[in-house]
C-alpha cells in the first residue's frame, strides 16, 4: 500500500506538470512578426519570426525544404541559419515552435512572393519643350511608387492602376535635370535620369548675301543665310526664292552661315523668305528682296518688276511701238506701268498675263524670221511689216532644210565648227574661229537639233542648195541679223 501511494503521488505530480506545461505552452508560447513579409526582392532572405515564451526547439520550412533554425534568445527571435533561396514567384514558408514538453506546438504558415525584377519606367514627355509648365507623363509597373526630383525639389506623382503616371512640373528656362525613381512593393527600384530643355524663344534668322536691297550682277550662285538657336538647336531651315524652295548645299561658309543654290534668276526684284524652326517648335521668318541686274542684252534672261538697264529700255521701246506705253515712260526701269503694259500685251496675244517678259512674250514683241526656201530669201519682220530681206543658201537635196515653226535657241559669236554626227563629217576635225570657219562669225541655232542660221566662208554658195541643212548667209548680213534678234525669236521656214 505504501508503494502504491507513492506511485499514485508521482503520477499525480507528472500529470500536474504536464497540465501546467500544456497550459503554459498554450497561453504563453506565441509567434510574433514574420520576415520577410508577403513580398520581397531578396532571394537569399533569412526567414525570421519573433516569439513569446520558452520554446524547446523550432522547425523552419520553405517550399517543404527544411532549413536549420537558430534561436536568438536575447532578441526573442527565431531565424534560419542559412538563406532561404526563394524561387521567383510564390513561396510557402512554415515555422513551428515546440514547448518544453511535446504536447502542443505553435505554427505559422504564410506565402512570400519573390519579385527580383526592377519596375519598368518610361517617359512619353519630349526632351525639348516650349513652355515652363510641363505635365510629365509616362508609365511604370502597376502598384509602384514614383518619386520625381527636379533639381533639389521633389514633386509628387500620381500612378494609376495601369501604371500610367502624371506629374506637374514648373521648369526653368534652359536645361532641367530630372531624376525619377520607381519602387515596387518588393523593394526593387529603377532610377531614370533625364534632361528636359525649356526653350521659350524663337531661333535667330537673317540674310547674309545678297543683302537686302542689294543689286546682284549675276543670275546664279549661292545665297547665304544666318540661322541659329543656342537653346534647343535648329530643327529645319527653309529658304524660298519667289515662292520656289531652294536646295540647301551641305557646305557652309567659314562663319557657319548656311548656303542655298540659286540658278537662272530672272532680271528684277527677287523676294527671299527664310523660315527657321527650332526643336522646341518655335519658328522665325525673315523676308527681304534684292535686285538681279546681270545683263544688258534683251532676251538673255526673263525680265520682271525691278529690272533695270539697256535691256529694259529696249523692251519699253517695243511697248511704245505697240501703243502700250508713252515715250516719256522709257526710263530703263521695269516699273509698275511697264508691268501693266506687258500684261496687257500678253492678254492681247493669248499669253498668260503675268507681267514677266520671258522667251514667249519677247518672241511676240520682237521681230520674226521668215525663210522662203524656194526664193532663197530670209525676211526679218516686226509688227507685221518687213524690215529687211537677205539672200541665203540652204540644204542640198540629200540634206534638205526642215520646214516648220521654230525659234532661236542658241546664239554664239565667233563659233567653233564641230563635226556633226553624220556620215559626211566622219573624218572631219573641229575648226576654230577664223577665215576658214564654215560658220563665219555668227551662229544662230534653232530648236531643231543641229540646224541653224550662220555665216559662210564660201560666199559663192549663196543662192543655191549647197548646205547640209543649215541656212547660210553672207557674213555681214548674218552679223546684222544677229544684232536685231534675241533668244526666242520665232523662225518660220517655208
The helix count comes to 5
CATH secondary-structure class of the largest domain: Mainly Beta
- How many E-type strands? 37
The fraction of residues in strands falls at: 35-45%
Q: Going by CATH, what is the homologous superfamily of the largest domain?
A: L,D-transpeptidase catalytic domain-like
Largest sheet, described in full?
8 strands, mixed
Distance between the termini: 165 Å
The value of Rg in angstroms is 50 Å
Which consecutive residue ranges, at least 5 long each, have pLDDT under 50?
none
The CATH topology name of the largest domain reads: L,D-transpeptidase catalytic domain-like
Mean pLDDT: 90
Tell me the overall shape.
rod-shaped
Side by side, the strands of the main sheet go: 30-29-28-37-32-33-34-36
What is the count of structural domains? 5
Plain-language structure description:
The protein has 494 residues and is mostly beta strands. It has five domains: 29-114, Immunoglobulin-like (Sandwich), CATH 2.60.40; 121-198, Immunoglobulins (Immunoglobulin-like, Sandwich); 204-292, Immunoglobulins (Immunoglobulin-like); 310-364, no CATH class; 366-493, L,D-transpeptidase catalytic domain-like (Beta Barrel). It is 14% helix and 41% strand. It is rod-shaped and about 175 Å long. It starts with a helix and ends with a strand.
Short description:
This protein has 494 residues and is mainly beta. The protein has five helices and 37 strands.
Topology, pairings included?
Elements: H1 2-28, E1 30-35, E2 39-40, E3 48-52, E4 57-62, E5 65-67, E6 69-72, E7 77-80, E8 89-98, E9 106-114, E10 121-123, E11 128-129, E12 133-140, E13 145-150, E14 153-155, E15 158-159, E16 164-170, E17 174-183, E18 189-198, E19 204-209, E20 215-216, E21 221-228, E22 234-241, E23 244-245, E24 247-252, E25 258-262, E26 268-278, E27 283-292, H2 310-321, H3 336-348, H4 359-365, E28 368-372, E29 377-382, E30 385-391, E31 394-395, E32 404-413, E33 442-446, E34 452-454, E35 465-467, E36 471-472, H5 475-484, E37 490-493
